[in-house]
Specification:
The complex is a heterodimer.
Chain A (H helix, E strand, L loop, with lengths): L1 H13 L12 E7 L4 E9 L5 E9 L2 H14 L4 H5 L3 H8 L5 H19 L4 H5 L3
Antiparallel strand pairs in A: 1-2, 2-3
Helix pairs in contact in A: 1-2, 2-5
Chain B lengths: L4 H7 L6 E3 L2 E2 L1 E2 L10 H14 L9 H20 L8 E4 L2 H16 L5 E5 L8 H10 L2 E5 L9 H8 L5 E5 L11 H10 L3 E5 L11 H4 L3 E5 L10 E5 L1 H6 L10 E4 L4 E3 L13 H17 L1 H19 L5 E3 L10 E6 L4 H10 L2 E2 L1 E3 L4 H6 L5 E5 L6 H18 L1
Parallel strand pairs in B: 3-15, 5-6, 5-7, 7-8, 8-9
Antiparallel strand pairs in B: 1-2, 4-10, 9-10, 11-12, 13-14, 14-17, 16-17
Helix pairs in contact in B: 2-10, 3-10, 4-5, 11-14, 12-14
The chains are: A alpha+beta, B alpha/beta.
Chain lengths: ~130, ~400
Amino acid sequence: MDDFYRELIVEHYKNPTYKGTLDPNDFTYEDENPLCGDHIRVDLRVDENQVITEAVFSGHGCAISQASADLLMESIIGKPLDEVKKMTKETVLELLGIELGPVRLKCALLSLKVLKAGLYGIGNIEEELSEI
Amino acid sequence: MNLDINKIKTDFPILNREVRPGTRLVYLDSTATAQKPSVVIDSMKQYYEMSNANIHRGIHQLAEEATSMYESARQKIARFIHARSTKEIIFTRNATESINLVAQTWGRKFLNAGDLIILTEMEHHSNLVPWQMLAEEKNLELDFIPVTEIGELDSTAYDRLLEKNPKLVAFTHMSNVLGTINPAKEMVQKAHDAGALVLIDGAQSVPHFSVDVNDLDADFYVFSAHKMVGPTGIGVLYGKEKLLAEMPPFLGGGDMIKKVHLRSFKANDLPHKFEAGTPAIAEAIGFGKAIDYLSAIGMENIADHEKKITQYALQKLQVVENLKVFCPNVTERGGVISFEMGFVHPHDVAQVLDHYGIAVRAGHHCAMPLHEKFGLPATSRASFYLYNDYEDVDLLVIGLQHVNEMFA
């Protein structure tokens, strides 16, 4: 735990590369983790082929939720929306490169949850999120 | 009398485990749930190995033993909180279920549209949501005694609320976030003078200091075994016999009946009227043992010890940079300290502490409205019990200094 916190997570938490908002944007969505009040918003821009050209997040939260959001943004730039829709919790865990217990998993997956909930639209959230 | 903490620590097997190789456990989360001494664990094992049977109905040796062990636990609890009779001690799953029981039976029968229930801003969700559910169903009014900046209930505001003719006042004896011990006796008296009944959430008080429901004159008093070195899955509703007698049953089923016909039933006598189905027998027995254990040490001694540890911790924490205790100047305080650490998220505080084997709680501690009031999404919380010593506090302080180093 110590090493990952000190290096990867803390680094992304303290100096996120993809933190900010986009105005105008093609897509924006936000949500929170009621467990701890962590709040994340994701803004995207896409090209005419529905490929993500810019992705940023904003909000507040613990190091794991913020670092995983930063890593997730980095990983989706250049990907088509359809591919992003198929991302799973394993995708995020691979990005983080760590194993997490069920409680911290919720922190790590908040940004993916926000992203997918936004992409699928409100109507399909519950079903899709049960997969996350 | 000073507690022999080294001896006490050996009573709790879990406190001798290493969280990870070479890292001993520093358990500072007893407000969430307390650890269990071997006498409690063994009593449950022994029941299953020697006396396991269903209670109250069987006419065989094991059933007699099991029934007598179960009922003797009830007697111990009645004596422990100074109830007048075992008829006033209802076994439930936990304090939460006890509150729901009162809301769904007494509340449903005796409250009508427009009736007012007074709660407080420092309640645990378990003493908010059952009343919100009832209020929605029956169109009741809810109002709240505010929490002052110091972290205490605003007694002037309480007096004003009482003028609105409430039917019930429900409040926590001790806040699970701030540690505030509320002046329960005085509050009960005022409520009674205003014609209201009183329910007290004792989940954090009964484990930590001596409680006399008779002296408090509480109408309902609820608590859970697992926060007082007993097992999970069992709690208590204390209610004045007269009130319990007037209340309809809660859950229906076996044991809570005297007679059953195809279309009707006659409810059993107290306390069984409220205990439908096979109860948590082993847990009741473990609960009884927990009471024996705490009583042998003495609740005054436990309270005294926790007060010393808490004062020591409040003082020690001052050396930690960026650390701000949530309401440090509460006058009457139990062994609970919630705090924030500058911009470091409580989850990160807890995760780093966990690396050093220190267990604290991070989050809103099931008191979202209280955190909202103070503009905090979440806090970290360290809580103390009879098995914590000064060294535990020192290790916490060192751990928190590591948090600062990591996130500086």
